[in-house]
Amino acid sequence: MREAIEFQDVHFAYPNRPESLRGIDVAVREGSKVALVGPNGAGKTTLLLMCNGMLRPTRGAVRVGGVPVHYDARSLREVRRKVGLVFQNSDAQLFAPTVWQDVAFGPLNLGMEKDEIKEAVDRALHQVGMNGYERRPPHHLSGGEKKRVAIAGVLAMEPEVLVFDEPTSALDPATAEEVMDLLDELNHEGRTVLLSTHDVELAYRWADEVVLMESGTVLRHGSPETIFSDTALLHQARLKPPAVMDLYRELSDRGLFNGEKPPRSALAFTDLVESLAGGRRYQDRCGTISIWDAAGTDSTALDTLLASGTVARVGAMGTRAKQRASEEGIIPDFTYGVIDKCLLRAVAGEDSLILTAGGMVAHTRERIAAYAIESGREIGVRTVGRDPQEQAGGETEGREKRSNNEIVPDHRHSGHEDNINGMAG
Ligand SMILES: Nc1ncnc2c1ncn2[C@@H]1O[C@H](COP(=O)(O)OP(=O)(O)OP(=O)(O)O)[C@@H](O)[C@H]1O
Q1: pTM over 0.80
Q2: In 3D, which of 154, 152, 159, 160 has the Cα closest to residue 129?
Q3: Which of 49-63, 280-294, 374-388 has the highest mean pLDDT?
Q4: How far apart (Å, rounded) are the C-alpha atoms in residues 420 and 201?
Q5: Ligand 1: which of 14, 37, 164, 218 to mutate, most ligand atoms within 8 Å of CB?
Q6: Pairing of strands 161-165, 192-197
Q7: Hey, what domains does the chain have and what are their CATH numbers?
Q8: Do 289 and 368 meet the contact criterion of CB atoms below 8 Å apart?
Q9: pLDDT value, residue 374
Q10: Which residues contact 204 (CB under 8 A, 6 or more apart)?
Q11: Is pLDDT of 18 > 90?
């Protein structure tokens, strides 16, 4: 796999200051999700500003897509087309009088034709769920909305790599999770995502790879499990372990675990505890997860499923799905960590429905199927309106009987958000 961005022995000092970066060697693989983690002043922002040539190393080299950045106007234009940078503070990024003008700024600068600009802006606003806000002044938006517009401004230039400095800082927990969902969506579309954060919970469950920085150096680059299970390393970086890792370690110290891989989510943690407690205690029969493609126009099959009363919980995953849920009058129970939450419900014997769109439909099916195989559970999965119920290995008997005895949940009028749970993955 190619490297999206490479830093080779990168040093950097702000004028009249000691070095903020002291020999950084890091490669970010194409298509990966990488978190730069470290305490205040570690050099995360400084390193991110190198990704699209906003800062130039005082020594060393930066390569984007295998090509060294040369810092002349042509090379910088090329790099900025490939790498989109979203600042920590959206107010520093948004300056035009309207949302539309703000998002159009990048494409305009790239010299796109009028029609192309319109198409790029519409597409980007749609992607982040901010269509309808075109005429609004950005400074009148909420923090979460500003962040989405800032992301749209970058997406309008169709970059291959997205770089976010502290994407969730100053956002409330639910908005932060929704922004992370959006980042996942963008990654599933094939983009590399690199972000900086102090939030160890976020980095632990989200990232494929973690780069731990301290005092302008990389202390370690590795898997989230390796980095967050190393107490001495975290101590050196003045960070604390994620809650799920803390629990895992305490239980390990009491001899309850025996070298199992540390879990990264509530789902994985629950499975681990259950297996050590002697296997399944309840509900041999798992629920079915139905998936509805929110990009589709026909909602007849969705109406039929909801009217059947078999769906105990509904999750909406991704911007398009959340918009569509609102248009259909559905109030979702889960709006983040949706697949894991529906898998947890399925294991407890409940049927659920996931609204999602585009490439996320296939991803959701794959993730459910992979979990069913991994856990040896018979979890039903089907795409609403497309295929009959499939069983990831199991029988369906008893399903209707159980649902007939349940109170029919009405997702079009009620529903609730789960409490924010730092462990939900
Ligand atoms: N514009 C600047 N001028 C001078 N020094 C700076 C500037 N920006 C950052 N620094 C210094 O560079 C070092 C690294 O700062 P940087 O902002 O990159 O760290 P960080 O890991 O992103 O920190 P934080 O998590 O607090 O945002 C710090 O010592 C900081 O004081």
Answers
A1: yes
A2: 152
A3: 49-63
A4: 12
A5: 14
A6: parallel
A7: 3-236 (3.40.50.300), 248-276 (no CATH), 288-404 (3.40.1010)
A8: yes
A9: 85
A10: 210, 224, 228, 242, 244, 245, 264
A11: yes
395 pLDDT above the threshold of 80: no
**Tens-place pLDDT, residues 348-359:** 889 999 999 888
Three-state DSSP state, 416 = coil
| Residue among 155, 78, 84 at smallest CA distance from 119 | 155
Residue type, 155: L
Q: CA 292, 295, 300, 305: dihedral to nearest 10 degrees?
A: 10
Edge-to-edge order in the sheet of strand 3-13: 19-29, 3-13, 59-64, 67-68
Residue type, position 308, single letter:
S
Both tokens assigned to 166: 């502290």
CA atoms of 421 and 48, how far apart (whole Å): 29
Per-residue pLDDT reduced to its tens digit, 203-229: 999 999 999 999 999 999 999 999 999
130: its two tokens: 């901010």
In contact, 335 and 314? CB cutoff 8 Å:
no
Token output for 173: 């927990």
Could you give the CA distance from residue 220 to residue 201 in angstroms, rounded to a whole number? 18
From the CA of 168, how far away is ligand 1's center (Å)? 18
Ligand 1 centroid to residue 44 C-alpha, Å? 8
Q: How far is the CA of 183 from the centre of ligand 1 (A)?
A: 25
Look at residues 65, 6, 362, 64 and name the one whose alpha carbon lies nearest to residue 188. Answer: 362
Ligand 1 lining (C-beta closer than 6 Å): 14, 17, 20, 38, 40-46, 198
Per-residue tokens: 293: 């493609």
